[in-house]
Specification:
By secondary structure, this protein is mainly alpha-helical. It is 50% helix and 12% strand. It is built from 6 helices and 2 strands; from the N terminus they run ββαααααα. The longest helix has 21 residues, at 66-86. It is globular, with a radius of gyration of 16 Å.
């Protein structure tokens, strides 16, 4: 879990091909952020669990080796980490603003922090008070 993305159904992201000499690298980029940090259902933030995405998941499973998928995950995390470091002050201010605002319902917040705690085992999620704090921990 790098970030909370709202709605990752197949029509809310794009696949961007990048040509690199003898092969093509594909990246998935979210394009719909209107529900960011609102939903309480953990799987809403994980695109592989939408039935609309099953064909894409099957394609990835069929065409990519597990080692390649893990390498893509690592590269994506590195890109996000570099962005976080480059814009640390802006991100800190944004997350602080999110933590002091109401972004979702208490029921959604409780549901999400419980599910992420079950997934990660990190007790900080159980102690978080709102979506902004959940995001800060991620």
């Amino acid at each position: 879990m790098i970030r909370l993305l709202g709605d990752m159904r197949s029509y809310n992201y794009v696949i961007v091909p990048t040509h690199d000499f003898d092969h093509v690298v594909y990246s998935i980029r979210a394009i719909d952020f209107d529900q960011q940090c609102y939903e309480g259902k953990f799987n809403v933030y994980r695109p592989q669990f939408f039935k609309e995405n099953f064909k894409m998941v099957d394609l990835v499973t069929e065409k990519f080796e597990k080692q390649s998928v893990n390498q893509y995950k690592l590269e994506e995390r590195s890109i996000v980490a570099k962005r976080m470091l480059s814009f640390k002050n802006r991100i800190d201010r944004l997350i602080q603003c999110m933590a002091s605002d109401t972004l979702s319902t208490p029921e959604h917040e409780t549901m999400l922090k419980t599910k992420i705690f079950e997934y990660t085992g990190d007790s900080r999620f159980k102690k978080s008070k709102n979506m902004g704090e959940i995001l800060k921990i991620l």
